[in-house]
Every structure is written in structure tokens, then in C-alpha cells.
Write a structure and sequence with these properties.
The protein is mainly alpha-helical and 107 residues long. It has two domains: 31 residues; 70 residues. It is built from three helices and two strands; from the N terminus they run E-E-H-H-H. Helix 1 runs antiparallel to helix 2, helix 1 packs across helix 3 and helix 2 packs antiparallel against helix 3. The chain binds zinc ion (ZN).
Length: 107
């Protein structure tokens, strides 16, 4: 049940006008889906970043989540920072590994 803003009469949920005064009544806010795509991306990004090995994939999803997510904006930002840092480490480690292999070959 909802209440009329104008006269305070109780109105049945299926009515959009007050039966007492005839004023228009706002419909009850519809239950929104728990997650939109951005929220899912943000959670996925955080999960992938937490695995550390899959941080580069986390970075991709974190960037996709930014601006789309409403409830997990902070999570998306934190995911970007951490996954970018881990991706950088990952690249540096790969470069050092490749240099290591090549230098072994040259010796
Ligand atoms: Zn009314």
C-alpha cells in the first residue's frame, strides 16, 4: 500500500490515482536487477586481480567496468590500480625472463 502525498489517503498499489482527491500517485519503485553488466565486470576484475596471475585480464575488465558500474565504482578503481601494478610487474618479470633466456643462449 502507498500513501497519497496530497491528502494522505491510503491507496492500493495497483492504482495510479488517489481515490480520495484524484491526484496522481507515483508508482512504487520497481525492484532493479541486483547487478548490471558494469557491476559484474567490477567484481570479475577484482577476482581476476586477486589471483595475481590473471591480473592483466582483471585490468581489461576493470577498465570495462569504469563508468558502467553504479554500485562498485570504488571496487573498479581499486581493481584498476592493483591490476595495473601487477600487470606492470608481470611485464617486467617476463622481460627479465626473456633477457635471462637470451643471455644464457649467447654465453
Ligand atoms: Zn489524495
Amino acid at each position: 500500500m502507498k500513501k497519497c502525498d496530497l491528502c494522505g489517503a491510503t491507496i492500493s498499489d495497483d492504482l495510479d490515482r488517489c481515490p480520495e482527491c484524484g491526484s496522481k500517485v507515483e508508482p512504487l519503485p520497481m525492484a532493479k536487477p541486483a547487478n548490471n553488466r558494469g557491476d559484474i565486470y567490477a567484481i570479475l576484475a577484482a577476482s581476476l586481480t586477486a589471483t595475481q596471475v590473471l591480473a592483466p585480464a582483471g585490468l581489461v575488465f576493470a577498465i570495462a567496468a569504469i563508468g558502467k558500474t553504479k554500485r562498485h565504482q570504488a571496487l573498479a578503481i581499486v581493481s584498476i590500480v592493483f591490476s595495473a601494478f601487477l600487470t606492470l610487474l608481470w611485464i617486467v618479470a617476463t622481460v627479465y625472463y626473456v633477457i635471462g633466456i637470451t643471455s644464457v643462449r649467447y654465453y
